[in-house]
Amino acid sequence: MNILYKRTHSDILGIIASSLCLIHCLFTPFLFIAHTGSVLYQDGYSVLWKSLDIVFLALSFIAIHRSTKTTTNPTIKYAFWTSWVLLLCIIVNEKLSLFPLFEEVIYIVSILLVGLHFYNKKYCGCKREKCCAN
Q1: Which is more confident, 14 or 130?
Q2: Rounded to whole angstroms, how far apart are CA atoms 90 and 101?
Q3: Are 72 and 126 in contact (CB under 8 A)?
């Protein structure tokens, strides 16, 4: 069975993706400060580093999609998707600078997603593998 189709594996993927997103967001300012004087690294790291937002967003979408298909708690489904939409809006706003927003908001949403995946993994699962599948 594919790793993404097991509920616990999708929660683990979500924990990893959200944690890496959080680490990415925490270290981005330090990376750019460290390379402010270097013209050589500015463009290359900038494009690669900024594209990781989209990668983490896609991974979290996959993890949330699979986790919400098999969770036993309907409130968790809404919490997952609300958090993901918030994360999407924050990243789109960061890319397009639509309105001023505190940088710390993305940390809160990332931590929330990690916590939701931990909670879902521990309390909202089935005892049998197929009991929650659609």
Answers
A1: 14
A2: 8
A3: yes
Q: Report how far residue 22's alpha carbon sits from residue 30's, in angstroms, rounded to the nearest whole number.
A: 14
What is the per-residue DSSP string for 42-109?
HHHHHHHHHHHHHHHHHHHHHHHHHHHHH-S-HHHHHHHHHHHHHHHHHHHHHHH--S---THHHHHH
What pTM did the predictor assign?
A: 0.71
Question: Which of 83, 106, 96, 97 minimizes the C-alpha distance to 28?
Answer: 106
Q: Which residues contact 29 (CB under 8 A, 6 or more apart)?
A: none
CA distance 132 to 110: 26
What is the per-residue pLDDT across 22-76, written as a single tens digit (0 to 9) for each?
777 777 666 666 566 555 555 555 677 677 888 888 888 988 888 888 888 889 8
- Calpha distance 37→41 (Å, rounded): 9
Rounded CA-CA distance 35/126 in Å is 48
Count how many residues are written for the chain.
134
What lies within 8 Å, CB to CB, of 36 at 6+ separation is: 42
Contact present, 117 and 15 (Cβ < 8 Å): yes
